[in-house]
Amino acid sequence: MSLAAPAVVLIAAAIVLSVSACLVSGVRTGRRLRDLEGRIAALTAGVDGRSLEDVLDVHLATVHAVAGELESLSARIALLEVAGRRAFQRVGLVRYNPFEETGGNQSFALALLDADDDGFILTTLHARSGTRVYARALAAGRAEGSLSAEEAEALELARSATKGRPAIADHATEPQRTE
Fold it and tell me: 3 pLDDT band (50/70/90 cuts)?
């Protein structure tokens, strides 16, 4: 079976067109592939041209380091909170003149309390002949012996002191609070 010349020409033309279409399609696909590879390379390029995997490894290592530091800081904060409860947080001061022959309120009772009302009261009595200093320990806000009126007032002022500011009473003037 032989094909006529016009049929051969048509078949050859169809083959040439098909090959041409394949070539054009291949060139377009190649360009798209290069563009896509460029985009992927741009997306995955990290700092200093490293790959995305390298960048993620560095970030993951940083996250682990920060988590370790956070754990360490949490432990330190817990210790500071315990120590902070033992620090003097409330202060009450009463200035007074226990003796008529001395001038000014140079005697005082100073109460220092921590968060659990533990601490001490420091009392000074100033006279012309000298100054005497006394200290009384406080446990849960109670002293072992009885307190003078000024010591009891200093203790109450310390208990009521807020915002870390001392409460002060000066018996030459009206009781006051520093805020």
Answer: low
Residue 93 in this model has a pLDDT that exceeds 50: yes
Domain of 51 in residue numbering reads as 45-86
Among candidate residues 122, 106, 89, 90, the one with its CA nearest the CA of residue 170: 106
- Domain boundary (54, 86, 118) is at 86
Q: What DSSP element (H or E) covers 75?
A: helix 52-86
Min mean pLDDT across 39-43, 149-153, 167-171 is at 39-43
Lookup result for tokens 């754990």: 71
pTM of the model as a whole: 0.58
* 101 shares a domain with 75: no
